[in-house]
Each structure stands twice: as structure tokens, then as C-alpha cells.
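Box 3.1 A note on notation
Throughout this textbook, protein chains are presented in two layers. The first layer is the amino acid sequence; the second is a C-alpha cell string describing backbone geometry. Keep the layers aligned when reading.
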Amino acid sequence: MITDPVRVRIVRHAALVVGCTVVMVPIYMAFVASTLELAQIFERPMPLFPGRQFIRNYVQALVVGGRGLGGARAIGALTMVQNSMILAVGITVSKIVISLFSSFGIVFFRFPGRSVVFWLVLVTLMLPVEVRIVPTYQLVSDLRLLNSFAGLIMPLAVSATATFLFRQYFMTIPDEIVEAAKVDGAGPMRFFTSILLPMSRTPIATLVVIQFVYGWNQYLWPLIATTDRRFWTLMLGLSRMLATADHQADWHIVMAITIIAMIPPVALVLSMQKQFVKGLTESDK
């Protein structure tokens, strides 16, 4: 067994420690700020240890929010977490389901122009968001889906990237498995549900993580497609809290909502870490 020299391992671990420190220090300072009073945040230097306002600040963040979210129709982070969760889960499920079926049809069905269909799907990756945003808004507006979860999810329900990844994975499945399924009398849908889906758990898990984080962090489309506070997501709510004109933003509440916004994607990544890494590195099927 070949091992690295001690000096190389020390340098490698030192680089990891430095990288983790660079990432974690801002998160820790955000957490500390979320437990302080607003005046304490502007002290120089700012306290380096959590304060006594943890429960009060987080309850206010969850129930009431801060400036920019208040007024007669005040909403808290709890409502925005619910909206972000609906958006992220809806985008994740729709993208994976549609991509699975489209890749299944492209790889396992023989029809004229199937390569052209695949490349037409792939070409959509070349279109920047700015090119699509106006016609997408017009379509959603004509369908009267603005200020609705359907209007938030539908334009983001298809992924050329996921279709490409599933297509590449399906092409590695041996023809012998397909032929064996045919001999056993399995139709296309039976082959898809009983054989293909169980074999695709790893790439599905990988895409669940990627697409959930993508949906959770959506900002531009919810900003354009919603004017009703009831449909604000966490990212949109945070931006509204910072746009307080001449008033000072409630930074302790902003930091509390920021920490709350980190929890679901981090929890998902940690819970599916093995499947996620396996899906990115696995070469044998």
C-alpha cells in the first residue's frame, strides 16, 4: 500500500483547515449576529460570542420578520420557508420525472430524428436566462398563473442538464438487460419501473440534491412572478428586508433568517452525502 509522505499529508490537512475556516467564519459571525440586539451588531469590535437574544430574535424572525416584511400583511420566515420548500420540492420532482421519461424515450425507443430531438433539448442550455425571461413571463401572465405556485414552478419544471445526465447514464446500461426484460415479457413501462428506476437511484439522488438547492436558491423568477407577499420565498424576503430606504435594516433578524435559510439545503446535502458523491464519481454500473 502506497502512502503519502508525512509532509504532504500535513500540507494537505493544513489547506483543508484553512479552507474550512474561510467558509465557516462568516457563517459563525452571522449566527452570532442573529443572537444579539441590533445596537450590539454595530459595536466595534462586534461580540465574538453568541448573545442572549437567541430565542427572541428567532421567534420574531419566524413569526413577524423585520422591516420590509411588516405592515398590516406581515409575514415571517415560517411562511417563506413553506413557500421556498414548495418551490424547491416542486422543481426537483418535476425536473427529475420529466427528465427520466424524456431520457427513457430517447435512449430505448427507435424513432426517426431521435438524435435531433436530443440535440434540440441540449441547445436550450445555450440560451441565457435573460433571453427567456420576457417570453416566459408573458406566457405565465397570459395563463393567469402569476402569484401562484403553479406559475412559480412550471417555467422551471424542465431541465436539459438532467435529461443529458440521465441519457448518458441510460446509455451505459447493457443491451443484455433490455433483451432479458423483453424475453421475460416486460413491456416498456414495466421495464422502466421495475428495472430502470431501481438501477437509477444513484443519479436520481445526485440530481435531487442539485435541483433542490437550485430551487431553494431561486431569486430572479420569484421576484418577477410574484407581487403578493403570501408567495414570497426566503431569498425574496431577505432582499426585501435589505431594501428599507432611509431606515436601518434589522440586521439581527436578517441574520436569523439567513441561518434559517441555510438549514434545509445543508441538512439534505449531509443526509444524502454518500449517494451524492457516489453519483458524481461512480463509473461502474
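The mean pLDDT is 87. The domain at 79-236+263-281 is CATH 1.10.3720.10 (MetI-like fold).
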